[in-house]
Amino acid sequence: MGFFDRLANIWRGFLSLWVSDIESRNPEAVYEAAIDERVRKHRELKKAVSGIVYLRNKLSTELESKERELKEVMTQLPVAIEEGDDDVALVLIQKKDELTSQIETLSTELQKVSDQAEEAKSGLLSFQAEIEKLKREKEQMLAKKANAEARIQIQETLDGLSTDADVKALDNVREHISKLQAEADIGTEIQGDSLDQKLQKIKEKAANSSARSQLEEMKRQMASRKQGAMDSVKKTI
User: Fold this and answer.
1) Does residue 27 carry a pLDDT above 80?
2) Which of 95, 119, 139, 190 is such that its CA lies 20 to 30 A from the CA of 171?
3) Is the pTM of this model over 0.90?
4) Domain 3-161 belongs to what topology?
5) Is the distance from CB of 131 to CB of 42 less than 8 angstroms?
């Protein structure tokens, strides 16, 4: 195989792939083209069938005409014989034989053409049924295509909201809440250790100690006075 032959084969391969890609992207156009082509062939077939039917009708009409002529001849022949008109009788007999032969030929041809016409009509009806079937297939396949595209789109949308992304978002929320909780907890924990709290505790202790000292002093003074009074009573006695 020469270089240009190989190059031509590669080009045809690329062209075939390109056409296939276009067809797969435009299924409705492909179906419409196929339907239009079948409709065109159906018109051609219908025209051919009409020609066969026309020939059948023509043969049928001609056969009926010959049969009528033969009937007339068969009616005239006995009369010519009875009247002794042999010349007329001979002509009528010859005509009878010719008509009989023609009728046989026409009958044979009519039978053949009639069979062809019936076969052609059956084929025409089958072809019409194929066109209708292809139309239904087109609607069904386009509906399947639309359904598949919708399902793919939904799946792609769901894939966009992946589980990993959801888990990551939840982890972020959980971490944020945990940090807030820890912040609240540490505030409670360090509240007792703050400087103000320590000072307040010291003040409370100091105040308590001062009060207790005063109480002890007051107790000593009262005891001292009481003892002084008792001593005075003793001296008086």
Assistant:
1) no
2) 190
3) no
4) Helix Hairpins (1.10.287)
5) yes
